[in-house]
């Protein structure tokens, strides 16, 4: 079977299914997060040319609005019968518990068409993830037979009784069906957020996954119960075009010793004027601003790479590692090593590579 990797030159196609009685937030939540990946953070950082790697579509049975549980109505972008639409990723949302009555609910309508659609697309290489009670719909495909899965705690016993060829487990918020299976299931609550982070890590890289986790205050798999760490949002709406040029110069040259000299030249100002205007516009002295930019980059490197702390210090412009450690600890509230332990995405990336 083909691997679920989008060809170069186009975005990753993500189909979020919209069956009747789905929980709307498990459709719109993943859609919003995926639409934001790579662009919202870049916008906050003053980077205008960022590109989103995901093309998200809501897939329904007909052109009529889908009525979700509690009455929310969603208009599909794609129909199950649309020829030629081949997603790289399929997300099955949660279904209201009373609708998941297996033999009594009648899988022929309205959910059976989704079951067959999933089976066909998975056979052609799509990665499939089911959220919470939506695991019942994925279980109907028989793709999970012989594998491990998880689901909402309230439905675990009922699903285990109805799908005896699946091993349901309680321990994990996310459960891979196995290496190369291209199947993942999630438990209750907001476990779907970790699913989205998994997809972003796999298709867009660890750094974008980390940025998304921070923007949505979402915990990574390796960050259960740990407190947040401050981020840095460069002020950009101050109206001083010369200072903005200096900020962009720093963003592109922060690792060099002459970063501030270069920024001052880009702004076409004397030192005294530069320092005064920069502080008035941004609220930071040029040096403090440079340190914030460097620490932001250092956090990304500690989050998403295996480079040692000494290497990270050099990458962000500090030849004196002791000074870097001290500055990082003061500005981040923890040492570089503790930061990596708390927020590193190694587990997420390992699962992404295993599943896909």
Number of strands: 11
DSSP strand content: 5-15%
What is the fourth-level CATH superfamily of the largest domain?
A: Class I glutamine amidotransferase (GATase) domain
Radius of gyration equals 24 Å
**Can you identify the CATH class of the largest domain?**
Alpha Beta
Termini Cα gap: 12 Å
The SSE order reads EHHEEEEEHEHEHEEEHHHHHHHHHH
Please give the order of strands in the largest beta sheet. 5-2-1-6-7-11-10
The number of distinct structural domains comes to: 2
Protein name: Helix-turn-helix domain-containing protein
InterPro entries: Class_I_gatase-like (IPR029062), DJ-1/PfpI (IPR002818), Homeodomain-like_sf (IPR009057), HTH_AraC (IPR018060), INH-QAR (IPR052158)
GO molecular function: DNA-binding transcription factor activity; sequence-specific DNA binding
Domain HTH araC/xylS-type: 244-342
Structure description:
The chain has a seven-stranded mixed β-sheet, sandwiched between helices. Strand 6, helix 3 (112-123) and strand 7 (127-131) form a beta-alpha-beta unit. With 356 residues, it is α/β, with parallel strands linked by helices. It is built from 15 helices and eleven strands. The protein folds into two domains: 12-228 and 349-355, Class I glutamine amidotransferase (GATase) domain (Rossmann fold, 3-Layer(aba) Sandwich), CATH 3.40.50.880; 241-333, Orthogonal Bundle (Arc Repressor Mutant, subunit A), CATH 1.10.10.60. Helix 1 (25-36) runs parallel beside helix 6. The radius of gyration is 24 Å and the shape is elongated. The chain has helices at 25-36, 40-44, 112-123, 135-139, 156-162, 191-204, 206-215, 241-253, 259-267, 271-282, 286-304, 309-315, 321-332, 336-343, 346-355, and strands at 12-17, 54-60, 66-67, 73-74, 78-79, 89-92, 127-131, 148-149, 167-168, 174-176, 183-186.
């Amino acid at each position: 079977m083909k691997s679920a990797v989008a060809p170069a030159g186009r975005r990753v196609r993500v189909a979020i299914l919209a069956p009747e009685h789905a929980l709307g937030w498990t459709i719109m939540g993943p859609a919003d997060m995926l639409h934001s990946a790579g662009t919202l953070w870049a916008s906050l950082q003053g980077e205008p040319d960022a590109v989103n790697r995901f093309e998200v579509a809501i897939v329904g049975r007909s052109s009529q609005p889908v009525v979700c549980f509690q009455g929310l109505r969603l208009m599909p972008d794609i129909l199950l019968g649309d020829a030629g639409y081949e997603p790289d990723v399929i997300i099955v949302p949660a279904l209201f518990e009373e609708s998941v009555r297996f033999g009594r609910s009648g899988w022929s309508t309205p959910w059976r068409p989704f079951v067959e659609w999933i089976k066909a697309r998975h056979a052609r290489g799509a990665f499939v993830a089911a959220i919470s009670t939506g695991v019942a719909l994925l279980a109907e495909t028989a793709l999970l037979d012989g594998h491990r899965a998880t689901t909402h705690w309230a439905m675990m016993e009922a699903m285990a009784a109805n799908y005896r060829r699946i091993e349901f487990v309680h321990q994990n918020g996310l459960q891979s069906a196995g290496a190369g299976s291209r199947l993942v299931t999630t438990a209750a609550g907001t476990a779907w957020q970790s699913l989205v982070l998994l997809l972003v890590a796999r298709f867009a890289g660890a750094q974008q996954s980390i940025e998304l986790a921070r923007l949505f205050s979402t915990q990574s798999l390796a960050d259960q119960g740990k407190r947040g760490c401050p981020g840095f949002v460069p002020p950009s709406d101050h109206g001083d075009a010369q200072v903005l040029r200096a900020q962009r110069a720093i963003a592109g040259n922060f690792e060099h010793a002459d970063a501030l000299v270069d920024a001052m030249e880009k702004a076409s100002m004397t030192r005294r004027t530069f320092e005064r205007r920069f502080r008035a516009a941004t609220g930071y002295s040029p040096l403090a601003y440079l340190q914030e930019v460097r620490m932001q980059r250092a956090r990304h490197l500690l989050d998403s790479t295996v480079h040692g702390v000494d290497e990270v210090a050099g990458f962000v412009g500090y030849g004196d590692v002791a000074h870097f450690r001290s500055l990082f600890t003061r500005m981040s509230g923890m040492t570089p090593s503790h930061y990596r332990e708390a927020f590193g995405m190694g587990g997420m990336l390992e699962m992404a590579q295993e599943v896909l």
